[in-house]
Design brief:
- This protein is α+β, with helices and mostly antiparallel strands.
- The chain folds into 3 domains: 55 residues; 138 residues, Glucose Permease (Domain IIA) (Distorted Sandwich); 118 residues, RlpA-like domain (Barwin-like endoglucanases, Beta Barrel), CATH 2.40.40.10.
- The chain contains 6 helices and 17 strands.
- Helix 1 packs across helix 2.
- It comes from Acetobacterium wieringae.
- Its EC number is 3.4.24.-.
Length: 352
C-alpha cells in the first residue's frame, strides 16, 4: 500500500516543475541546516583548543606567567630549590639532607613527640660546635633563650628581591657561643654563633627558619646551597634576578667577542648584557659549571624585551631535552673592566 503511494508522489514531483522546486528547496535547506550544525559543533569543540594552544605558546604570556610564578613562589609548596639570594647559614660541607622529609619545611611527624605538626623551618645536620653565619647584612633582633628552640639568634636582613622583609632564626645554639646582642649590626658571612643542642632537640643540627613579611616560609626559597654561591664564586646578594627565555644550541664556532663557543660556558645575551657578564641559571646548578655562564656573543634573534638568551650545551640530545625554557636567572653585577678581562682570559678580543 505504501509503495504505490510513494511511487505516485514521486511521479507527481517529477512531472510538476513547481512541486519539484519546492521539494528540492526543502532538501537543500535541510542539508544546509545539517552542515551548519556540524560546522558549528566542530568550531565549538576546536576553538578552545586553538585558543589554549595560542596562549601556551605565546612568549609574552609565558613571560608574564613566569613572573607571577617567581613573585608568588612562596605560595607553591615543594618548589623551593635552594637557589635564593641569601647566603647559607653553615659551612658549605653541611647541606640540607632532602632525602629525609623530617628535615624539610611543612607538616611532618615530630621526631620527639611523635605527632603530626607543622615544621616551620628546616633542620640542617651538623656536629655540635659548627659555625653559624649571617645570611645577609642586617641587624640582630634577639639573642638568647627561646623555650623549646633553645638558644636562638634572630636577624633582620632587610628586604628580599621580591620586596618582602626577611627575618632569619637560628635555633638550638651552644650557650655562650655568641657575642652579639639586639641592635648590633652583622655582615653577610659573619660568624655569629655555634650549633648546639639546647632546647627540645636530639642534637647534631641547627633548626633554621625564615619569616617573609612576618609569615613562615620555606627557607630554601631565600637561601642558596649551590656550590657556586657557597664557594664565593658568585654573590647573589648583588645579582639582578630576571626571567629569561633560554634556547639550547650545540653548534660551535667563533663568537662576536672572539672566543670559541664552549658547552656549559657560553651564552649569547640580550643587548643590555655586556660581553663578559656572568649569569647564574639556578636550574643548571647541578651541572659541572655550577650553573654559571658567560655572555660571549649576541644572537640574531636575541630580544631585550623578552630577555632572550642562547645557551650552548654539550650534545644534541641535551639540546633537544632542554629545547626552549622560561626560567629565572641571576645577572652577576661586576665592573666593565672585570668583564673585559674575562673575555681576554677566555681567548677573545681585547676590548680594554
Amino acid at each position: 500500500m505504501a509503495i504505490p503511494v510513494i511511487a505516485k508522489a514521486a511521479t507527481a514531483v517529477a512531472t510538476d516543475k513547481k512541486l519539484r522546486n519546492i521539494v528540492l528547496g526543502i532538501l537543500a535547506g535541510f542539508l544546509g541546516l545539517v552542515l551548519g550544525l556540524v560546522l558549528t559543533l566542530v568550531y565549538i569543540l576546536s576553538t578552545p583548543i586553538t585558543m589554549l594552544t595560542s596562549i601556551i605558546t605565546n612568549p609574552d604570556i609565558l613571560a608574564v606567567v613566569l613572573q607571577l610564578k617567581t613573585e608568588y613562589q612562596y605560595l607553591l609548596p615543594g618548589k623551593a630549590n635552594g637557589n635564593g639570594q641569601f647566603a647559607w647559614p653553615l659551612d658549605a660541607e653541611y647541606k640540607l639532607d632532602r632525602s629525609d622529609e623530617t628535615n624539610l619545611f611543612g607538616e611532618r611527624v615530630h621526631p620527639i613527640y611523635g605527632d603530626v605538626r607543622m615544621h616551620t623551618g628546616i633542620d640542617i645536620q651538623a656536629p655540635d660546635g659548627s659555625n653559624c653565619y649571617a645570611i645577609g647584612d642586617g641587624t640582630v633582633v634577639y639573642a638568647g633563650m627561646n623555650g623549646g628552640w633553645g638558644n636562638t639568634i634572630i636577624l633582620n636582613v632587610g628586604k628580599a628581591k621580591d620586596g618582602k622583609e626577611i627575618t632569619a632564626f637560628y635555633c638550638h645554639l651552644t650557650s655562650g657561643s655568641w657575642s652579639i646582642n639586639a641592635g648590633d649590626m652583622v655582615k653577610r658571612g659573619q660568624q655569629i654563633a655555634l650549633t648546639g643542642a639546647t632546647g627540645s632537640t636530639q642534637g647534631g643540627h641547627i633548626h633554621f627558619e625564615i619569616k617573609a613579611d612576618g609569615e613562615y616560609v620555606d627557607p630554601m626559597l631565600y637561601i642558596s646551597d649551590s656550590d657556586a654561591a657557597l664557594s664565593g664564586e658568585i654573590d647573589l646578594s648583588k645579582a639582578e634576578m630576571v626571567n629569561a627565555q633560554i634556547t639550547a644550541y650545540c653548534d660551535y664556532g667563533t663568537t662576536s667577542s672572539g672566543t670559541t663557543t664552549t658547552a656549559n660556558r657560553t651564552v649569547a645575551g640580550y643587548p643590555s648584557l655586556e660581553s663578559g657578564t656572568r649569569i647564574y641559571i639556578p636550574v643548571r646548578a647541578d651541572q659541572p659549571n655550577g650553573g654559571v655562564y658567560v655572555v660571549e656573543d649576541r644572537g640574531g634573534a636575541v630580544d631585550e624585551e623578552r630577555k632572550v638568551i642562547d645557551m650552548w650545551l654539550p650534545t644534541e640530545a641535551e639540546c633537544l631535552s632542554w629545547g626552549r625554557q622560561y626560567v629565572p636567572i641571576y645577572v652577576i653585577q661586576e665592573d666593565s673592566a672585570t668583564k673585559k678581562q674575562r673575555i681576554v682570559d677566555l681567548g677573545g678580543y681585547d676590548f680594554r
